[in-house]
Design goal:
two-stranded antiparallel ribbon, 317 residues, 9-stranded antiparallel beta sheet, 12 helices, 45% helix, alpha+beta
């Protein structure tokens, strides 16, 4: 029996530790100072710079000094402090909120906020998507060095016009664990996103069955309607798909599309949640509302179920 890391995220003691950290007088004083500083970095329509720019543009529009208007616009663009302010906001959020949270849950966890995974891991779960961007690469200090990142992927389509239209394929979280498995080739569990003519399943950018894969049905009609299972190793696929795995995936199917890819040396799991987690707050209200405990709750359930799946795979290995 393996150590069950998901208990860290369901254990009430973990939430208690986070609450104690956040509610301590030292942390409260620090967080209030940080929030005040972060608010000064957000866009303020009442700033002197913005008011001067509005007055200048309105005055120039009433004259024929259009070259000066272009100069004013260029001044606004090239002296805009927003990029530096955004960098400062990112650093404040990471250093004072996100890092303390991660160290409380898993001491030794590392964070690279501006980077994600190698593109190849994203291609595992969305092989037909054209492009992607990612950030907030976290490597948890657990036994398996589980990795987390936000990811968005998209492709372009042309319809009746010549203009390309960006279509989002995935907007959520990806988990990766570099773990030896017994699968020969690969196992893919992909969400069903619709029906084609003839009532066949459509999988969009998650990809249909490849020539070297077999499609596997389970005894759960609910699961078969929500997912398709494609694998080059039918024996391993049926071994892994026990009732616990099916129950976990069925529960998530009611909330959001998820996809699973199992290879010989790693497992990738994608949650198409429709948002990024741990995003730097950019408005004054969002900064005021930020809480270490709330940030933990955003990811706790995802991590709990991910570790539950990993434990099952380890037990079957």
């Amino acid at each position: 029996m393996t150590e069950k890391h998901q208990n860290v995220f369901t254990d009430p003691e973990t939430a208690k530790k986070i609450a104690q950290l956040e509610n301590s007088p030292e942390m409260q004083n620090r967080l209030q100072q940080v929030k005040a500083d972060m608010k000064t970095k957000t866009f303020n329509p009442l700033s002197v710079r913005f008011i001067v720019m509005v007055i200048l543009v309105m005055s120039l529009l009433r004259t024929t000094y259009y070259p000066l208007l272009f100069v004013a616009i260029a001044w606004w663009v090239f002296t805009n402090p927003n990029d530096k302010n955004q960098t400062d906001l990112d650093e404040s959020y990471v250093n004072n909120f996100l890092s303390p949270l991660l160290q409380t849950v898993f001491p030794g966890t590392t964070l690279n906020y501006l980077e994600g995974f190698d593109r190849g891991f994203y291609d595992c779960i969305l092989p037909k998507s054209h492009r992607c961007s990612s950030s907030c690469h976290i490597t948890f200090a657990d036994k398996y060095k589980t990795e987390f990142t936000n990811m968005q992927s998209w492709h372009y389509e042309r319809h009746n016009t010549k203009k390309s239209i960006k279509v989002t394929d995935f907007y959520g979280q990806v988990f990766l664990v570099r773990l030896p498995t017994k699968v020969k080739g690969r196992l893919r569990i992909v969400p069903v996103i619709g029906k084609r003519w003839g009532n066949s399943k459509a999988h969009g950018r998650y990809g249909d069955r490849e020539k070297d894969e077999v499609e596997i049905q389970t005894e759960s009609l609910e699961f078969n309607d929500a997912y398709s299972i494609f694998s080059t190793d039918e024996f391993y696929a049926r071994l892994i798909l026990d009732p616990n795995v099916i129950t976990i995936l069925n529960n998530w199917a009611q909330k959001m599309p998820i996809s699973l890819y199992v290879a010989g040396e790693y497992i990738v799991l994608g949650f198409d949640s429709g948002r990024w987690l741990f995003s730097t707050p950019t408005s004054r209200k969002a900064i005021e509302d930020i809480s270490i405990a709330n940030e933990y709750e955003k990811v706790r359930k995802l991590l709990a179920d991910f570790y539950d799946l990993i434990d099952i795979f380890i037990e079957k290995a």
